Amino acid sequence: MKPDRPTIQLAAAFDLVDRLLAHRLVPVETVSVRNAVGRTLAADQTSPLDLPPFDKSAMDGYALPDDGPGPYRVLETVAAGSVSTAPLTPGTALKVMTGAPVPAGTRRVAKIEDVQVQNDQITVVRPERATNICVRAEDVRVGDTIIRAGTVLTPLDVANLIAVGVTLVAVRRRLRLAVLATGDEIVDTPAQLTPGKIMNANGPMLAALGRQFGMEVVTEQTVPDELLATLAAMRAATAAADLVVLTGGVSVGDFDFVQDALVASGLTVHFTQAAVKPGRPLTLATSPTCAVFGLPGNPVSAYLMFHLFVLRAAARLTGAPAPGRELMLPLDFKFTRRKADRTEYRPAHITPTGSVRELEFHGSAHLTALTAADGFFVIPAGTATLPRGQLVTVLVLPGSWR
Predict the structure, then answer these.
(1) Which of 28, 41, 153, 292 would give a disulfide with 157, using CB separation of 3.0 to 4.6 Å?
(2) In whole angstroms, what is the distance from residue 333 CA to residue 359 CA?
(3) Is residue 402 part of a domain?
(4) Residues 113-162: tens digit of each pLDDT
């Protein structure tokens, strides 16, 4: 028998995910910084170096010992990666390239285009106030925190860590994700499309989302609408993964067996319905080692619930912030709806002027509507009408803003 549980409010569902998974961090491993993009940093990274590590020239020019016009006798040329061999003394100059160390006693670097050259002497013909010197440690000092624990590392983070000499980092192990798409109606090739069948879009979509957010997909399979098959797939998935995502079979129809399989597998079912649209038939269950989300079968619902709940759970398990950015932006239209009992997410486009434009949307099966969406704007439960110009919360999905 399926668990009889009331609909949970969205805020309470979020809070429950946080509380259940807050202390289940996956193990730490050490990897090369070069291979750490997408991994969650397990400890603050501080700099073992000053940046710049020495006073260096900000441009091609001449290192000078004072503020005068000269003339100065040029002793040598110092390229980036080299150091001067001649000391800088009054009346002398060293030609320095961008990034080259400037010698002790350098007061300023005169740009090449601001000096006049005659034989081995130069005269400054266009003086300026700027010293054109990058001072040692003006960007980073030894011991400065470069990247905080919990950061999901980006290519820019990798560059900053390598720049200060950090080549190995402690990161959280990649989350292991299992994806199960249930339903007798879904097939994986067009050749299998007979009357009543549809292509399995949800499974590949959810697996791809998992990989996009740095997870290791340990299995992706289709499961028929049979209790024993669902139970077998569930047990195998929960044994192999940190997170299991099922799509379809989570409602209360005659052929919906996910909830029965969860209970038979020994998992604790926390809720089976959430007050959100789209996505009401949402299930959360846990074991001591795994969290299972039963997502609706309609693809927009599955896509949205992955971003709202699965990524939230992933963040708790890795110590990272949940991805997704919320903005407050004005509507450029009047919004109305007949029922206001649930928090609703509607696909939206963000205009160049920063307002929210509604997209044509036929419901939770209308997956192609999301190809033009920058995210979803949020209509709170209890709100039936939003006037033009009203500030609304917009969930901007990672990689979606076009």
Answers:
(1) 153
(2) 11
(3) no
(4) 999 999 899 999 998 889 999 999 999 999 999 999 999 999 999 999 99
Domain of 79?
56-134
200 and 256 inside one domain: yes
| Residues 252 and 283 grouped into a single domain | yes
In a domain, 379, yes or no: yes
77 and 187 in a single domain? The answer is: no
Which residues partner with 325 through β-bridges? 396
Is residue 74 very low, low, confident or very high in pLDDT (cuts 50, 70, 90)?
A: very high
pLDDT at site 2: 47
More confident of the two residues 250 and 63: 63
Question: Are 296 and 247 contacting, i.e. CB atoms less than 8 angstroms apart?
Answer: yes
